[in-house]
Design a protein that fits this description.
Largest sheet: 8 strands, parallel
Strand content: 15-25%
Number of strands: 8
Helix content: 25-40%
Bound molecules: zinc ion
């Protein structure tokens, strides 16, 4: 069976409280080789670590979402450092800038994004970036903080060819979500075939962003298959090729292939 992979899900959220283990079992049945459960809110990293410890094919990230930036303190930084030291922690994220919702002041978001890139550099981990309506600021901060040295993933990539080119030039991977299956996918549908096969990942962002025809319903990792199928159709290649590449790329960017290289 083709090995699919979900580079970005939020399995600790309350939307999964009633049936979390069943959701994880369905992901395994769908052929997922990996799920990365991504922390976003305060205290989430510890919950992600617990979940990852109980499932061999789940890894996790630690970080504070830009929506939560105003809650970042030195104490929070310390808890993220501790979580990042867990053997199953694979990245710092999701971190970045969200100028669409502006739930934290922009200046604060920029500061906390920089601080968490610093954490990633110190922990020698890649980063998982959330950016919305903030391309210029995101690229500027990544350059100024020399984030290319650690690399990582632009999650739920939403740009076109020009943004894709800049991400790739910085050495980052592009992770595509259910948004690519929407009728209004727009320029995103051009970016998916443009990106080289060895730089793309697949994700669900579950419980959010259910792909067509499940749009509007709770999403879950098993539906990453639909995302891979859409990318394959856009690239005019077999879905197995996309799934295998996405899984290989996930293992590379999160250093699951040769853990001996972690911290090198
Ligand atoms: Zn996000
Ligand atoms: Zn997310």
């Amino acid at each position: 069976m083709t090995a699919h992979s979900d580079s970005h899900a939020h399995l600790t959220l309350e939307q999964f409280d009633a049936d979390r283990e069943a959701v994880i079992a369905r992901a395994r049945d769908a052929g997922l080789a990996h799920i990365v459960t991504v922390s976003s809110y305060l205290g989430d990293a510890e919950r992600c670590a617990d979940l990852a410890a109980r499932h061999d094919f789940i890894h996790f990230t630690c970080g504070l979402h830009p929506h939560e930036a105003r809650r970042f303190t030195e104490e929070v930084a310390e808890s993220l450092r501790a979580a990042a030291a867990c053997p199953k922690a694979v990245a710092i994220g999701e971190i970045g800038l969200d100028f669409h919702y502006d739930l934290s002041p922009r200046e604060h978001q920029r500061e906390v994004f920089r601080a968490q890139i610093g954490l990633a550099r110190a922990a020698r981990l890649p980063i998982v970036i959330h950016t919305r309506e903030a391309w210029d600021d995101t690229f500027a901060i990544l350059r100024e903080e020399e984030a290319a040295a650690i690399g990582g993933v632009f999650h739920c990539f939403s740009g076109g060819i020009e943004e894709a080119r800049q991400c790739l030039d910085l050495g980052f991977y592009l992770s595509f979500a259910g948004t690519i299956t929407f009728k209004n996918a727009g320029v995103l549908a051009e970016a998916a075939p443009y990106a080289p096969l060895d730089r793309i990942l697949t994700e669900t962002d579950a419980p959010f962003l259910s792909p067509h025809p499940f749009r509007g319903r709770r999403n879950e990792p098993a539906r990453v298959v639909v995302v891979a199928e859409r990318i394959a159709a856009l690239r005019m290649v077999p879905v197995d090729e996309v799934a295998a590449a996405a899984t290989r790329n996930l293992e590379t960017v999160f250093r699951l292939v040769d853990p001996g290289k972690r911290g090198a």
